[in-house]
Structures
1.
Amino acid sequence: MRTAVVIGTGLVGTSAALALSGRGVQVHLVDRDPSSAGTAAALGAGTEEAPEGPVDLAVVAVPPAHTASVLAGAMRDGVARGYLDVASVKGGPRRELEALGIDLTAYIGTHPMAGKERSGPLAATADLFEGRPWVLTPTPHTDTEVLNLALELVALCRAVPVVMDADAHDRAVALVSHTPQLVSSMVAARLEEADETAVRLCGQGIRDVTRIAASDPRMWVEILSANPGPVADVLARIAADLDETVRALRGLESADADERRTGADGIEDVLRRGNAGRVRVPGKHGAAPAAYEVVAVLISDRPGELAGIFADAGRAGVNIEDVRIEHATGQQAGLVQLMVEPSGAPVLSAALSERGWPVRP
Amino acid sequence: MRTAVVIGTGLVGTSAALALSGRGVQVHLVDRDPSSAGTAAALGAGTEEAPEGPVDLAVVAVPPAHTASVLAGAMRDGVARGYLDVASVKGGPRRELEALGIDLTAYIGTHPMAGKERSGPLAATADLFEGRPWVLTPTPHTDTEVLNLALELVALCRAVPVVMDADAHDRAVALVSHTPQLVSSMVAARLEEADETAVRLCGQGIRDVTRIAASDPRMWVEILSANPGPVADVLARIAADLDETVRALRGLESADADERRTGADGIEDVLRRGNAGRVRVPGKHGAAPAAYEVVAVLISDRPGELAGIFADAGRAGVNIEDVRIEHATGQQAGLVQLMVEPSGAPVLSAALSERGWPVRP
């Protein structure tokens, strides 16, 4: 690939343009808002000048609701040899294009699984996609040349290509992204009217469950509007589990020992299925979370305490894979949990103890 | 308080005994399993010898199902001036004691909001309760002397006393602890049958939402069995939101523009209520999560990288309040997010940039 046009210079479009430009591809930037394209160009993402002839690849990075019409326009104008979009849903845009009667051999729908809290070209970075899954949804009609252009883009962005059927993709993101967002919001919504005293009892569990409930509602309305069916299907199955669980809890209130037993079994069942699902969630490096061991150290909250621990861990040659700091309410002291490969745990424990750190068993 | 008896030398009982012994209180240890009391005594939590006369305070730290009967036995034997339990629910034990016709002026129900993954005396530490909320549920009939003994215990354990009505406590933990556990399990349970390709698309959002789905089912069946009514009430309200949300999503699939508009409004409503609830969740030090700013730095995964960052942060005099490390799938490099007080963010950014760290805007 030598030339590309990026249509839509928001976070994703500009980040892809930065990655392509950084690896020697001539990138032309287009946006409905010329100041956005200008910002992207100023960041080194490419040029605002129009290409002289068709480019190798057109990357359409506009909001889901406009994806099909922008793609159709670009394809009618013949701006490129191959076309792809990066919208977070894949079935809808394809069906819209089909309805427009467009030949789809030169098109491939894709979805890079990367993002951040901020949007717009100023939030863009060339490394946004590094190591992230980038879903490609070719059909039997997709030109091999177009698939290879998409694979080249993914490689230049240092992402990990994952080939999926468009509808399977939409069901997968409904399951692993869109549903958790809505459920997190619903748990957090219960706190809106809670007593201040109740809220004081919040611990790390609810803190983690509700973290993404802080997300931008408008952005999520747009995402969910493009994938309502698969999300409703997953939520309906959770609703069935929820109804069963409420019934099981009511059984636990019963005076009848058999009903209490049935209730306890129902509760245990949903908790065990939760265990089974949770172990499938990949950790970083794709490892299951259980693959790390925790070394816990008590610290004060003075600057330099963490530095000392990390320095001593570094000296011991042990790599810290993840960190969690648990602070007690209203207190400065806290417990640092250092996640390490199992082989490193005893080495790290011994090294830190030797240097006087209060390592917890 | 000069003397105490701790009945039940598991994690909580032994930790309280260690804190009391460490601050000069004479502690007598009792457990149905003598080897457990022996272990606690060997750790320095107190003596296995019986007290010569009534002690100042009896701390009953047995499983919820046995709390009332053990309390009743101790009160009939007159082992102490004041009695408290530490069970994770408070309404049930009180009603059981009332049903037994026991004078409750010398009793106060309490609940220390502290725990860990491991149980038993060997997991105990004198600092388990440091800075954690410790709920006290006095009634108008509770002797002031007994309330003061409980407050003294909480102070000696360096916890933060929170006075609540017993039933309000049970509703609060249903909301902030028991419900998030079940909902996390239900989201994780959806992954049990998911395609491997779908699971590969998991990101940090679902990872956080399902973290506590890894919890021990048996322990949670016991906890939930003691508080089924309040948990069912919260879950029923979430179920109502869930049904509304499924309806809103179905509306978004409609051909009718009005129905789509109503659907989008319904989705936006639940997301906004989630925002409003989430800001009420206290962060560490009791601060709302929004109170921190994030300074993000790209690192490789070599030992010593984190040490260097923390050392340079320490030199800049900026205290790091929390850390999150985001690793890309299948990659060694990652993004370190350093949470700092807002005033410290520009100082830290400048200091790290100056020392050559790739700080992300």
Note: Chain B touches chain A through 136 residues (CB under 8 Å).
2.
Amino acid sequence: MRDEHENRAIDLKNIRITDDFWKTEQELVRTEVIPYQWEALNDRVPGAAPSFAMHNFRAAKALRARSHEPGFTAPVFGKVPFEVLPEDPAHPDPGKFYGFLFQDTDFYKWIEAVAYSLTDHPDPELQKTADEAITIVAGAQAEDGYLDTYYILNGRNAEFSNLRDNHELYCFGHLTEAAVAYAQATGNSELLGVAERCASYISSKIGAEEGKKHGYPGHEIAEMALVRLYEETGEEKYLNLSRYFIDERGKDPKYFGLEGRPQPEHEKPNPVFSYYQAHKPVREQDEAMGHAVRAMYLYSGMADIARLTDDDALKEACRKLFSSVSRDKMYVTGGVGSTHIGEAFTFPYDLPNDTAYTESCAAIGLVFFSRRMLEMEPKSIYADVMERALYNGVLSGIALDGKSFFYVNPLEVWPEASHRDARKLHVKNVRQKWFGCACCPPNIARLLGSVGAYAYTENEDTLFTHLYMSSEIKKRVDDREVSVKLSADRSSPVKWDVKILVENAPSDFTLALRIPGWCGGKYELSGVPESAVCKKDGYLYVKKDWADADELQISFSCPVRFIRSDTRVRENSGKIAVTHGPLVYCLEEKDNGPDLNLVMIERGTEASEVVFENAEIAGRTAEILLVPGLREQPVTDQGLYFDAEEKTDTCTPVTLRMIPYFFWANRGENEMQVWIRRA
Amino acid sequence: MRDEHENRAIDLKNIRITDDFWKTEQELVRTEVIPYQWEALNDRVPGAAPSFAMHNFRAAKALRARSHEPGFTAPVFGKVPFEVLPEDPAHPDPGKFYGFLFQDTDFYKWIEAVAYSLTDHPDPELQKTADEAITIVAGAQAEDGYLDTYYILNGRNAEFSNLRDNHELYCFGHLTEAAVAYAQATGNSELLGVAERCASYISSKIGAEEGKKHGYPGHEIAEMALVRLYEETGEEKYLNLSRYFIDERGKDPKYFGLEGRPQPEHEKPNPVFSYYQAHKPVREQDEAMGHAVRAMYLYSGMADIARLTDDDALKEACRKLFSSVSRDKMYVTGGVGSTHIGEAFTFPYDLPNDTAYTESCAAIGLVFFSRRMLEMEPKSIYADVMERALYNGVLSGIALDGKSFFYVNPLEVWPEASHRDARKLHVKNVRQKWFGCACCPPNIARLLGSVGAYAYTENEDTLFTHLYMSSEIKKRVDDREVSVKLSADRSSPVKWDVKILVENAPSDFTLALRIPGWCGGKYELSGVPESAVCKKDGYLYVKKDWADADELQISFSCPVRFIRSDTRVRENSGKIAVTHGPLVYCLEEKDNGPDLNLVMIERGTEASEVVFENAEIAGRTAEILLVPGLREQPVTDQGLYFDAEEKTDTCTPVTLRMIPYFFWANRGENEMQVWIRRA
């Protein structure tokens, strides 16, 4: 059933973020990430693994240019020996494909981030660079619309032959996301044309009709990208292709078992179809499984389709999957994916802190999924999860100076283990400049650049405020342009004051204000008569006869909280985490000395005893929490095992200095810990 | 410097074990393990993976028989396609080798266990079976002395070409251990001849001289086996070959880097030489590294050579390595090898309980190493570790009915994780009948069969009692046969009473009695004047004018102990283990309900409050400990994360029922936990 409050993301052109906190992040993207990544895409970063992304597009463009020459023969898959890296990295063969199968997406994610940056901050020089790059990409597209440089350069005779593993539809999805964003931002629709032609070509090869492949993406994203393309162009065929992917997925006989190589014997014990969320039809799925990023992207597409087609079974599946993620399988940081083996979900309540995978991209995916659930049915449970992931699991992925990134975001780090324990080699202690598989940095960039579209969504007459950040929004209601100026004051450590100035609003206009979970239901709304407020699903709907300039205030209580886990989370038995507002806090060795396993917070210590202090960390101001704690006396001279006698079992009172989780690892390699033992 | 108390293992012919506890284990080996394994070696166990061990020997024997026929051509390595399993398991090609490279050792370990069993319990039928099998093995040996059915059947042109990986010297080591044991037990020296000829052939191919390979075993054991062969035969050349292996190991340039395939790029980050303990010369090694079983076997050989050649540098390396193992890298159960990745040691104090590898064979190896340290210099620190490993990490490897086995011995098990968490798939919750790589079951059998040689060692005039088990020992001193009858009474839960009757001892005779670490220095020795007792390194040396029949008693305090870990063991922060005498105790779900993570022992609870109870578990009587504990109230209805408020944070007093660790997993799949939270 269609939700009366169904809504969709606000157009970024209609929002200007003025918030210090988010402006700082966006400026990092604009001034650090985007320029750096352009160099990386062009293999010009000394010491970094080359991307070959632009190289591959240029090679494909040159191939197409040659294709009309007499005597031209197209590459044949299997005949051209495939190389990941050129023998001499300084001299790649200009005609060959290099890098991962999905290397094209390095560019697509970058250009999407560029689009958001240009929306907010016009930059003719950057736009010129981007326009020229798009022309190269357009030139690489085959005349029939196909675009994937891996197959174009290695032999299109094998295209769509291994949807399970070979990422063509994943590349298409990122192309499409970028194309829509870039057209919206700049009016240049060259890339949009590329995406549309590519979508049409895919539709001609994959679908329900006889003679087409009855497949779907091995790595999802096309589902939600096609929805975006549909919403931009109004072309139903894109919606239909997305729905086809959703509907076909997981049906018997399994497409992924039919195409490509048969499942090898040694993979048999693995639930391999669930890795791709293809173990059963999506409407029957009720447990988040498999590769976490893939899962988040699929569920996002499902929520899009469920909303647009008003598909109750699909909506219910989305709710169950959201619950499975957020109720059973999510870290307190909003990170998801407990294991590096398959970068995947494991089973409910299995949330190890020190071997967590919690890929930045999976937290980003959870933000995507949460917003789409909000679009389907605005309930604050979705926004709570979105905010948790954004402020913690996503932001920890990027350094405070914007120059390095985490792929993996653990909740506990013992540096020696990361160096010497083969089970933890995936857990890095310092962020890296760039990755061979560079999905996270540009993914963070495109999310931060478009954060306004997560803070606000809208429908015809309602503006939803999900995240509170200072900003100015324009919204057309009836024939009037309503202006909303929101000012979020986070200077007080105990409350979060938000002033909202609504101008030129007709009486149809509704302002929906989320009540964040972290305020514990304690807030004060003023400037509005009680009769103008209706509370539903964690949102305050304010509708009134608006004055020309109407100011209201809402103030949320923002206490420090000591948090426990569901007792089935074994890793956190007898431990607590500390949060403040949307932020999860952590201990770092830099502030608290080594051996964080010896640190405790005594039972009976109240969160209200915590003292606030501002401190500078790596050039950024952080609100530090000073928490009364205990430190167990180290015992290292009694042998490995010894009698638990009182004399060796004493504690010293200490003041724990806790920093926001996303501030960690900005001062060199050191221990870090989120969950703290209770004494 | 030679230790004045240097000693060596007692000849099993001179000991008869009468102890209920150990007799039961030995009877399991005799009545269950040995017959079952003979069936397994002959591929006659329905449903179990075939061993092919006897198949391979028969095939090699047939090949040798054919080798004199006209037109015979020997197999050429690389020409015969290598198969691990026959296409049709019911019809293996009688001429082909199947199974692991080291499949021959399945038989050698079995025949060694048979030897010990026959020593204690003559059985003409079993001996006939064994004699006939030995004749097959002898027939498989090449005329020049070479014996490894993998190369004999696949092509001897490649023999000794990959000492690093291909286990020829490992097979030889097990052959030799078995051969000495069988000759000692039965007087049949046919297998001893096989081992001697094989040793001579190896000496002709590997050694310091020009033209020989300057290599050493990739999987150690030959080092200690050659010492045993030397001690049995008096032939110095065997001692020299062992010393050569010890001396050459880890020298630059690394032999393992020279022979065989070069190290592939993807292995580069791994400290690959350390996996084989070949990263530096053994005398420079001071940290236990690499594959744990390999390490234990090497260190055992080092201790043998250090003792026999009075090599101070080697002795010091042995002490450092023993300390590294037992002080930094050993579980409270005596298990070693923290990770399944490479079945290996990790770094100091990294002792995860739920992902532990702690292979049964590694605990067995630690028993070997400890006894050899005792032989070198009898200090009770070595015996304490030996006893800890034997009663816990080794015994847990075999089911109480002797019919199934653990390869991996974790200290904490959550069955769902073993099924659904790819990081814990190696952790089984129920013992298995047999393994494709069947090293542990026969290794346990040969250790249990020869446990008397770990309980007692001797030198010219001294009998060392390391483990207290009821038994009768004969020992020649001067020209007299001294009889020692030891009776260990463990019926009291608070003390361990030992009566020792010494008969016919000359005044030269010394009885050295270990003071176990678990008695906390509390013991009473009676029946001996104070002047007759000298205490050194944890042993009481009793020397006196012995009466014809002289009885003395020693009674060890045997308290329940609550044990902590060195605080650098992060996994055990805030946790205690419970021990009683040499036994480590554990909680099982069967006795304590599910969610063992919620169980605690309150600070202030004294170990003296523990109550004893006898109970029957899977047909065996166990001493159960009833420990006053607490159980945290489960909270599963508050969402995944919630405020740590007092109302949800309550505990109920419970009585924890703890069973000896080695009793675990004998009542079906369930949770188990050794380390318990303190409240």
Note: Chain A touches chain B through 60 residues (CB under 8 Å).
